Amino acid sequence: MKQYYKLLLLVGLLVSGASCKKYLDVTPDNTGTLEYAFRNRNEAENYLFTCYATLQQFYDPTSNIGFTTSSEIIYPNNLTNHPLNESGFNLIRGTQNSSSPGVNWWDGENGGQALFRSIRRCNIMLENIDKPVDLSPAEKARWIAEVKFLKAYYHYYLCRLYGPVPLVKTNIDITASTEEVRVKRSPVDSVFNYCVQLLDQAIPDLPPVITNQAKELGRITQLTAMSIKAEILATQASPLFNGNPDYASMKNKDGEPLFSSTADPQKWKRAADACKAAIDACEANGLKLYTFVAPPTVGALSDQLRNELTIQNAVTEKWDVNPELIWALNPTFPCQGYATPRLTPKSAVNIFSNPSTFAVPISTQELFYTANGVPLTEDKDYDYANRFGLKTAGDADKYYIAQGYTTINEHYGRESRFYANIAFDGSIWYGNGIYNQDQAYHVEARGSGSLAGPKDLNTLNITGYWPKKLANYLSVYDDGFQSIEYHLPLMRLAGLYLLYAETLNEVNGPTGDVYNYIDKVRTRAGLKGVLESWSTYSKNPGKPTTKEGLRDIIHHERRIELCFEAQSGWDLRRWKEIQGVLSVPLQGWNIYESEAGNYYRPHTVLTPVFGLKNYFWPIKDNDLIVNSNLVQTTYW
Prior knowledge:
It is a single chain. The protein is mainly alpha-helical and 636 residues long. Helices cover 39% and strands 6% of the residues. The strands form six sheets. Strands 1-10 form a two-stranded antiparallel ribbon. Strands 2-3 form a two-stranded antiparallel ribbon. A two-stranded antiparallel ribbon has the order 4-7. α1 crosses α2 (31-37). It holds the Pfam family SusD-like_3. Belongs to the SusD family. Keywords: Cell outer membrane, Membrane, Signal. This is RagB/SusD family nutrient uptake outer membrane protein.
């Protein structure tokens, strides 16, 4: 069986690389191999998992531009070792081009996967699903639904990157003429509508949740499909796709417009309805916002640390016991070592165990609210002008900042999500094998002589901030690195709540339901509701009472709540806000300085390069030569 299976994959690869058909759905001509692949249930199930195979590659954050281009994390480009594919991180340095595009999900190059090949596999599965004689009707219906979901998701992913893409509803026969193979782009609305159509067909035959968790976690459920449908419709309704004037002139060679010329507000209504349906289904099946429950190994916890662990573990908790998790992939998050600073003398000796090179810029830490639940620049009680002044931590700060340690004012008086998401010089790092809160480790990052400070060009953090949220508090970095693995969420309930609030605000403006779903997330974070926080503490108390003001708040809230989860980069694009975010230099601290007064001086570590053309990916130049019916993305 293995030899036949290898032959099947080889045929698929050969077909995918042939002339202009390399990214299209083309039926393999080895019918004997296909007959073997679908001769019985077991063989067909193997092929089902090949349809899932590309999806599982989405676990790698370095190939997810929602992660690498969000400005949340900077990865240095001057290392002497290169353990990661740096193509995605380098995109904000202006490296994108049409001769060899970075993170190319069209052809499967430079960190991307060949999604058209994946769609072809899905079509092969759907075309041959009737062949296994021992496949029960119920299982057959479920498999068809799973493959339709995958086919929809692959098309959606391509659309987010490239805008209008060819719709490959069925495989093109191997005997097709050259002209039949030369497909053209489909309008973005056609792509979104086709994805939703596939999901609507799939949802009734998917299980609501996975009951056989030992064998089936990671497979698609109704809740997954309904939530992704909501996300797809919200993306379609967003300014990047909904009447975007910047792409109004983009047309196929036959004159067919590829973007709608005017915005359709009804798209927000469709998205809001889909969000509410997904939320109702999730809650009916027992999903709820995560709350940390201390295991027996954990001692007494302050309210501060308990809130912090609630926020951190909403992402890093085991997926079979996390009531907030809607969807994650089977492979575990592979980069904890890049998010963890050195905390112990042994870890400073074993510096190659953890690179610690995921660096958070100052602008990302400043996203997080004050303890009053409003932005730093809006809090009337916050001394923003003196935020870089020095202060020594006292007893009241000891669960966030090491008592007696000197750091900057900006690190005090912040919301709990700030301390759960970001580690900084002097910050408490609860866990790492120590579960007595009064003996917790803290980060020492000033100068080469400090534990977490720069030691060489391969194990340094160039800003002095780490994405703490991406490290499980149970993982231990001491004499080597023993990680407790987790699955990075693709969708969790808090994100769905905020998506519903966003779509509902676009439909009706501020309403009680909009506030309610924002406040569910804020309450879990230990904050007061939007109206109370702004009316009490903000310099602009009426901001949440207008549609535009509340839109800004919701966008800000999503960037905080979903920080480091490979979401913000996508959100900023669909909102058409990423160009503004990447128009300012990204800064960090003077990491080689040991004295606080010298260390805490902002300096630029990266000046991003992002223009209007970078909202969508170029098609590779060679593909345009091979297929004369394709048009290049506007501005490329």
